[in-house]
Design a protein that fits this description.
By secondary structure, this protein is mainly beta. It contains one helix and twelve strands. A hairpin with a 6-residue loop joins strand 6 (86-96) and strand 7.
């Protein structure tokens, strides 16, 4: 794998509507990969806060750079939830181009459907925003969401489809009465990954 680094002119095209974390991720230098690599995850950050009343709040941010046109399908935002126990409080996505203004996807771009139409007992639903039709080689697609759920069994941890990862972090914040034990890392194949555990007073 080549270790040359390339600049990211996308930083000049971002607008005030783009969050700081996405602007910073898009402007960083990334290695020049072999031709088999079609996309690279620039940024992956998830913070889960466990409240004493049993609610779990998750804040998620993700950015991917499309290196080859055939990887346009990576420009896909998704978040799952169970209506009876949880809700999606915020869900946003953006597409950053080499030249031209950034595109922000709004509520009209969100699709909401059952995760399994063939299972009537499965209440899990998924919200999706697709940037595939707008994405091309060189573009950066990013999205973020905030969910709240009464059950800690709902996990939003995704996969990177064998893409290399530049930066990834998982932070778990427990209440004062929470269970203090080592948590397994959910991050794989990252050049900079960390798992953090926070409790009040620590």
């Amino acid at each position: 794998m080549l270790l040359l680094f390339v600049s990211a002119p996308i930083s000049k095209a971002v607008s005030d509507d783009v969050p700081a974390w996405l602007s910073q991720a898009a402007s960083q230098k990334v290695p020049t990969y072999d031709k088999e690599v079609s996309a690279v995850v620039l940024y992956h950050d998830v913070t889960r806060s466990l409240n004493e009343d049993g609610r779990v709040t998750e804040v998620y941010s993700y950015a991917v750079r499309i290196l080859r046109r055939e990887a346009r399908g990576r420009a896909m935002a998704h978040v799952g939830y169970i209506p009876d126990t949880g809700k999606v409080k915020e869900f946003h996505a953006w597409l950053l181009r080499d030249n031209g203004p950034a595109k922000r996807y709004g509520k009209d771009d969100v699709l909401d459907f059952a995760a399994d139409d063939n299972d009537v007992y499965n209440e899990f639903r998924v919200k999706v925003i697709s940037g595939k039709d707008d994405a091309d080689a060189g573009t950066v697609f990013g999205y973020s969401y905030t969910t709240e759920d009464k059950s800690s069994s709902v996990s939003q941890t995704g996969t990177f489809k064998f893409d290399p990862v530049i930066t990834s972090r998982c932070t778990v914040i427990l209440p004062a009465a929470g269970v203090r034990k080592p948590l397994p890392s959910i991050i794989r194949r990252s050049s900079h990954a960390s798992t953090e555990l926070h409790t009040p007073g620590n």
